[in-house]
Amino acid sequence: MIIHLKEGVNQTVVNEWSGPLKALSFKKDDKFILVTEASVKEIPAQFESYVDSFWVFDNDIQLASKKYKSEKRTVKIGDVTIGGNTGNTILIGGPCSVESEDQIRESAEFIKSLGLTTLRGGCYKPRTSPYSFQGMGFEGLMLLKKMKAEYGLNIITEARDATHIDEIIEHSDVIQVGAKAMYDQGILRACAKTDKPVLIKRGFGTTLKEFAQAAEFVLSGGNENVILCERGLRTFETNTRFTLDLCGVAWLQEHVNLPIVLDPSHAMGYAYGVPVLAKACVAMGIDGLLIEAHPDPRVAKSDASQQLDHPTFTKMLNELKPVAEAVDYKII
Ligand code: PEP
Ligand code: MN
User: How close is the Cα of 161 to the center of ligand 2, in Å?
Assistant: First the structure.
């Protein structure tokens, strides 16, 4: 149950409630909001006078549910807003990993030259093998920060675990919670305490309910700036790296009130399929696309096979624009 308390109800009352109802609470516009397990269906009589409004749910998708907010939420990334009825599809590009100053500078110049606003690049890489390149860590984050300062771009980078989440929150404009990290409560709880946008990637074995519940961890701490990112599931198929779950996206669009970004790069695993998949994604009327691009994918230190070279990325962008227009969206 979500309970909006009346203006002026103070922390003491909230503390009294939170115990018996096992409620989480946060404050919005000077009013407290309590969220209990969905199994709670009624307001205890002694608290009724404090309640402004309340919503009852069948399951623990609550703050993220369209039953609570029927309009899709908006999220601001620097100067641009996605979600709501903005009709914006933000194209976030850049390499899988920050590898050197030259490489990330070339990427930043490229993203800027296309009139795009947001640069991605991983610094703390959640690699499958301990022997592969693990990312440049803090040094990479500082390079991203430098690119932000020099090119006026927003930066997005992923948290691999909770050990470095504070520095990512401090320096990044959007915190990416990776597919392998989306169950990490340390990361999610830290993201709940900031108001920076958090992009949560769906794990490759994660149900839609679990995905939305990861968002609930952040929302229930009071951070409303959550974006969901579909990036492919593991299925029986091995010819592509993962299977992009567009049915799942349609389900989220119907039931969940958060902006949705799609990542065809990690789903496909091969550059050749990325532009055409990107068109399919944009045709669904989505809030953003995350596409890996590298100045020279052949020498990329991670995800080399799926990163687009810059001419291919440019061609893809030009082809996406009319697709977006056809569904009343605009690539920004
Ligand atoms: C990435 O974005 O580079 C990445 C590692 O993605 P995912 O968490 O989806 O595997
Ligand atoms: Mn990658």
Answer: 16
Report which ligand 1 atom has the smallest distance to the Cα of 303. Answer: 3
pLDDT for residue 20 is more than 90: no
Q: Which of 263, 326, 329, 290 is nearest to 82 (CA)?
A: 329
Quote the pTM value: 0.97
CA 245–ligand 2 middle distance (angstroms): 18
* 176 Cβ neighbours under 8 A, 6+ residues apart: 120, 156, 157, 158, 159, 199, 201, 229
Helices (H), the chain: 11-21, 101-113, 138-151, 165-171, 185-192, 208-219, 246-255, 264-268, 274-283, 310-326
Entry field: residues in the chain:
332
d(CA 255, CA 70): 9
Given a cut of 90, whether residue 98 has pLDDT beyond it is yes
Token representation of residue 297: 């994918």
Percent of the chain with pLDDT over 70: 100
* C-beta of 294 in contact with ligand 1 (< 6 A): no
